[in-house]
Structure formats: structure tokens, C-alpha cells
Amino acid sequence: MQSHYLLGIDGGGTRCRARLTSNGTVLAEAIGGPANVWSDYDAALKSAEQLIAQVIAQAGLPSQALTQTTVVAGLAGANVASVKARLASWQPPCAALQVVSDVEIACAGAHAGEPGAVFIIGTGSQGAAWDGEHFTLLGGWGFALSDQGSGAELGRRALRLALLAHEDIIPKTDFTDSLMAQFDRSPETMLLWTRNAVPADWARVVPPVFAAADAGDAHARSLLQQTADDIGLMVRRLTTLSAGRLALMGGLADPIQTWLAEDIQALLVAPQCDALAGAITLAQRVNR
């Protein structure tokens, strides 16, 4: 028996969104706190559950309507096998539940459920390819091990380069000096900062890199080319796993495109829909 309602959840590291639909009509949407089940499992599920209740209420439905609802939750960190196993115990009182990673619903949304791939490049990075039956995920293993082509990795490279220039190992430029000035031109101050810096802190360096590259700074241009090469490495693998179509998504997607190799640019397509639409598309498959 098919559910009356479809509910999609897009849970990321900074916010969680939910959308409730019925027969293709959006009934309610809501935004809540972070929902990364790897970094904070309990808080992530709390955010998701709050949004589930919120969209049901916003739609003017009784809480019991959840028992007639198919839910697909795309949660950051759900690609980790140990976390996915733990999520098997999460059983909200809905008609059906599927938990996937946030990159999977982004992929489903980008290609409206058709085969294709996405590479998300924001603070971190992760890719997914959909062949029409199965998802294959690439990357997404965190800043220390993965995140190729991401803002955090670009920021780390930029600060390392600035430190090299500060110690006269490579030529200084106004760009490298401006980065060191953020730390009072003190390597020790920079070192102390790294003790507590999270990926988002490293990624804050990204806008000055693009500005310096636009102004012709050779170091900044080299940094962006390294990032573009990393993205190309991931894109080439992802396109072999899908129908060859790939959408770049995330905060770096637009500014980095002109730095990509021509063959990579030729593979790119614009996302058709957002991640929440992708969650609803997957919910339709569950509901068949």
C-alpha cells in the first residue's frame, strides 16, 4: 500500500532541511540545526526528528499522519559503515524509512532521478554516481584523509605556502604576506591556531586566494590550479561510474569552473533540482 505523503530530509554539517509532499504538491518545508551523524549522532537525529514533526504540523496534519508517510533522510556521515549500522536502530513511526548520505540525495536531485554523478565541493568534498540502480560514493572521508578539491584543503595549502614564503623558502608576495598578517606574521601564532581549527576555519582563506589569483598572483593561481586538478581526478572517475553526466555542486562549484581542464568542463551539466527534491525522488522509488 502506497503512503499518502513523501518526506525528504537533507541533513548537512551546518543545517538540516525537510520537505513534505503529497501527490507532487509541496505541503511544508522547514530548516533546523546540523545533522551530521558522524560528528554528532544524537544531535543529528534530534534535528531530523524535530523537522519531521515540524513539517507535519505546518501542513496542518495530525501527528499520526507520519504513519502514512514515506521518509528518505539524506544525512551527512551516513556513508560510514559503522554509522549506517547504528542507524538501523532509528525507527521513527513512519510508513517506510530509507537513510542514505546527503551526497546521494544531491545526486538524485541533480539528475532528476536519472543516471548521472555529482561532485560536491564546499568546505569538504564528496562524490556520488548513480547508474539507475545503485549509488557509488567516492571521497567524503574527512579533512585529514580526503576532501580533494575542497575549500578546507585549498585553505590548508594556502597557509602552508604562506609560511614557506615567510621563511624565505619561496618568494614572498603581497598575497602570502597578507595571509601571514592574519596571524601577526608569527608562525607560532599560526601553529597555536591550528590546534583548534576545524575545516570551516581553514576554508575561510579561500576568498583571498581567488582575489589574489584574479590580480595575477602566481602563488594563488598555482593553488587554484592544484585544486582544479584534484577536482578533475575525482570527476574522471565519477563519470566512468555513471552515464558520463556530472554536476558540480557546493560553494566552490561556480568559482573554480574556469580553472578546470577543458575536457572536464565539457562533462559538466547544470543540476536540475536540489537535494531535497532528490530525497523526494528516492522516496517515490521506496513508495512503489
Give a short synopsis of this structure.
The chain is α/β, with parallel strands linked by helices. The protein has 12 helices and 9 strands. The radius of gyration is 21 Å and the shape is elongated.
Strand and helix layout:
Blueprint lengths: L4 E7 L4 E7 L2 E8 L8 H18 L10 E7 L5 H7 L8 E5 L1 H9 L5 E6 L3 E6 L4 E5 L11 H16 L7 H8 L5 H8 L4 H5 L2 H9 L3 H23 L5 E4 L3 H4 L5 H6 L7 H12 L2
Parallel strand pairs: 1-4, 4-5, 6-9
Antiparallel strand pairs: 1-2, 2-3, 6-7, 7-8
- CATH fold group of the largest domain: Nucleotidyltransferase, domain 5
Biggest sheet descriptor: 5 strands, mixed
Helix coverage percent = 40-55%
| Structural class assignment | alpha/beta
Q: Note poorly predicted spans.
A: none
Secondary-structure element string: EEEHEHEHEEEHHHHHHEHHH
Taken together, the total number of domains comes to: 2
- Considering the protein shown, what is the CATH homologous superfamily of the largest domain? ATPase, nucleotide binding domain
Sheet-strand content, in percent, reads 15-25%
Number of strands: 9
Mean pLDDT score: 94
How are the strands of the largest sheet arranged? 3-2-1-4-5
Shape: elongated
* Ends apart, CA distance between termini: 9 Å
Round the Cα radius of gyration to an integer and report it: 21 Å
CATH architecture of the largest domain: 2-Layer Sandwich
* Count of helical regions: 12
Q: Kindly provide the name of the CATH class of the largest domain.
A: Alpha Beta
